[in-house]
Structures are given as structure tokens and as C-alpha cells.
Write a structure and sequence with these properties.
The protein is an alpha/beta fold. Helix content is 46%, strand content 12%. The chain has helices spanning 2-14, 32-35, 45-55, 75-82, 96-100, 105-121, 139-156, 184-203, and strands spanning 24-30, 60-66, 89-93, 125-129, 160-161. Strands 2-1-3-4-5 form a five-stranded parallel beta sheet, with helices on both faces. β4 (125-129), α7 (139-156) and β5 (160-161) form a beta-alpha-beta unit. α3 (45-55) crosses α8 (184-203). The longest helix has 20 residues, at 184-203. It is globular and about 45 Å long. 34% of the residues are buried.
Length: 209
């Protein structure tokens, strides 16, 4: 009887998932850009990301924790609550609202650092999404804002999405009338921006190979 049980367990194990990773859980922590403001949620980048990874054979759950109007200030509180879901990865995409409101860059950097350190303390792998703001905030503030994400990526040795909205920002046909939030078509590009950085981390293989 014991032999039969061991044999069955062996068969079950043999027939299990064969992809590189199974049951991956990815938390997308951000603001309205993550939420998918103004469009159907299935067109947001977290939803598209889950679909793209499943097509590639991954058993994955992508959690959309985008919250309109959110700044980096409540990032730590949010990650503490959301960590109960036990994500393997977090895509940290906060800071855009800090910049658009002209908030303290020192506080922005500290707030993001707090989120990163908390996540890493729980062995959650962090992918940082870089942000940019319009030049009308002044060259000094605009430049220093962008530097924060690169500096954090270097300090904590994080994979960095140089600019979450690369290829989308400033293009009217890819943004809603507010000129800030992507359309469904725009989010196709945003999803690819994220996938280009995330996929090699999950597979250990460069996306160009």
C-alpha cells in the first residue's frame, strides 16, 4: 500500500507544472497610472501583464493595487497591509502625484526607501518604476525628481523601468483628454515596458536572447 502511495505521488509530481515558475504572485503598487484610470480595468497594465505572462506559460496572479491620487506618503502603510497577500514581486510605481503636486523630493525619496526596505525585509523582490514630470515645474525640480528613481535603483540594486510611460507620454493619440492617463492602446505599450524588465527577472534569461 505504501509503495502504491509513493508511486501515485511520483506520478502527480511528474505531471505537475513544467514552466520555470509556478504560482507567481505580483503586486502592482501605484496610483491611477497603475489602477487604469478612465478605462476598463481589463485594459490596465496589471491585467494585461497577467495575460501576457499566462500566454508565456506562467502560473501567475497579478494584483492591481493602483489607487487614484495616491502619493508616496502612504506607500509604507499600503505595502504593510498588502504584504499579507504574500507577493513574490512588487512593481513599485509611486511618485508621479508627488511630483505633480510639487511635494518635497527629500520626503519622496525617503518614502520610497521605506517601502523598498520593508518589502526586501520580507524577501519580496522589488521592481522600481521610474517617473517623469512636465518641464513646467522648473528644470531643477524636474531633473532632481527623475534622479531619485535612478539613485534608489542604484542604492538598493533594483531593476529599474526607466520611465513607466515611455513611448506613451506626450502622445495625444495614446492618452485620455487629460493628457496624463493612457488609453487602452497606450497601456499596451506600458505593459511591454514592464514586461521587458520583469520577464528576465522571472526567467533569468534576457528578453533579447
Amino acid at each position: 500500500m505504501r509503495f502504491v502511495l509513493l508511486l501515485l505521488l511520483g506520478i502527480i509530481g511528474f505531471c505537475g507544472p513544467t514552466n520555470n515558475e509556478s504560482n507567481i504572485k505580483i503586486l502592482c503598487l501605484g496610483d491611477s497610472l497603475t489602477e487604469g484610470y478612465g478605462i476598463l480595468k481589463e485594459y490596465s497594465y496589471p491585467s494585461r501583464l497577467e495575460e501576457a505572462l499566462k500566454i508565456k506559460g506562467f502560473s501567475v496572479k497579478v494584483i492591481n493595487s493602483g489607487q487614484s491620487g495616491s502619493t508616496s506618503k502612504n506607500g509604507l502603510k499600503r505595502i504593510k497591509w498588502l504584504s499579507r497577500m504574500k507577493p513574490d514581486y512588487v512593481i513599485l510605481a509611486l511618485g508621479a502625484n508627488d511630483g505633480l503636486r510639487g511635494l518635497s523630493l527629500v520626503e519622496l525619496e525617503q518614502n520610497l526607501s521605506d517601502v523598498i526596505e520593508y518589502a526586501e525585509g520580507l524577501k519580496i523582490k522589488v521592481v522600481l518604476a521610474g517617473m517623469k514630470i512636465p518641464p513646467n515645474y522648473g528644470p531643477s525640480y524636474t531633473l532632481e525628481f527623475e534622479k531619485i528613481f535612478k539613485r534608489l535603483a542604484k542604492t538598493y540594486e533594483l531593476p529599474l523601468i526607466d520611465f513607466l510611460l515611455d513611448g506613451v507620454a506626450g502622445k495625444p493619440d495614446l492618452n485620455l483628454p487629460d493628457g496624463i492617463h493612457p488609453t487602452a492602446e497606450g497601456y499596451e505599450i506600458v505593459t511591454q515596458n514592464v514586461l521587458n524588465i520583469l520577464l528576465p527577472i522571472i526567467t533569468g534569461v534576457s528578453i533579447d536572447e
